[in-house]
């Protein structure tokens, strides 16, 4: 799915309060901090890293616990599932609740023209519990339940 140029994607993230939702791909795109790339390289595969190295990550909207759509929480700057309370940081790494791992995500491709494509035909399984490449804690009150963090 084409999502435009990287500048368009970054504008959508900014305009969305840190989260850009693309319903046609059933996905969220958020910023991936460049300061976390070293940790990410030890955990993620090269196809997954392409987006992170460009400063973004595409996350499948589906909670890996029981399949509910996971909304963003503007106050905590996390994803928080209202069905059973699973919580994920801004880049989809599990922070709390019953989910067995982090959110699944999609690889991004960058054309020489600057166009960004998200390959929704490939689902990269979310990382195991305990993965925390960004160190991002909740940045404000949670939208769903209370976290153990």
Structure description:
The chain is globular, with a radius of gyration of 14 Å. Helices cover 15% and strands 24% of the residues. By secondary structure, the protein is α+β, with helices and mostly antiparallel strands. The mean pLDDT is 93. The protein has a single domain (2-118), classed as Rieske Iron-sulfur Protein. The chain has a four-stranded antiparallel β-sheet. It contains three helices and eleven strands, in the order βαββααββββββββ. The protein has helices at residues 6-15, 37-41, 46-53, and strands spanning 2-5, 20-22, 27-31, 56-60, 72-73, 78-80, 87-88, 94-96, 105-106, 108-110, 115-118.
Low-confidence stretches: none
Radius of gyration: 14 Å
Order of helices and strands: EHEEHHEEEEEEEE
Q: Can you identify the CATH superfamily?
A: Rieske [2Fe-2S] iron-sulphur domain
Number of strands: 11
CATH class: Mainly Beta
Helix content: 10-25%
Give the DSSP E fraction (strand runs of 2 or more residues). Answer: 15-25%
What integer is the average pLDDT? Answer: 93
How many helix segments?
3
Using the 3D structure, state the CATH architecture: 3-layer Sandwich
Query: What is the SS-derived class?
Result: alpha+beta
* Largest sheet descriptor: 4 strands, antiparallel
Morphology:
globular
Query: How many structural domains in the coordinates?
Result: 1
Biggest sheet strand order reads 2-3-4-9
CATH topology: Rieske Iron-sulfur Protein
């Amino acid at each position: 799915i084409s999502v435009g140029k990287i500048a368009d994607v970054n504008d959508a993230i900014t305009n969305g309060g840190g989260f850009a939702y693309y319903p046609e791909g059933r996905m969220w795109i958020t910023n991936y901090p460049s300061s976390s790339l070293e940790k990410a390289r030890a955990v993620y595969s090269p196809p997954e890293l392409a987006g992170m190295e460009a400063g973004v990550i595409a996350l499948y909207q589906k909670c890996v616990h029981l399949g509910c759509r996971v909304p963003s929480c503007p106050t905590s700057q996390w994803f928080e599932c209202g069905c059973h309370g699973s919580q994920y940081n801004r880049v989809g790494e599990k922070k709390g609740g019953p989910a067995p791992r982090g959110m699944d995500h999609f690889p991004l491709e960058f054309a020489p023209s600057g166009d960004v494509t998200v390959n929704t035909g490939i689902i990269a399984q979310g990382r195991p519990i305990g993965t925390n490449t960004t160190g991002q804690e909740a940045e404000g009150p949670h939208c769903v339940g209370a976290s153990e963090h």
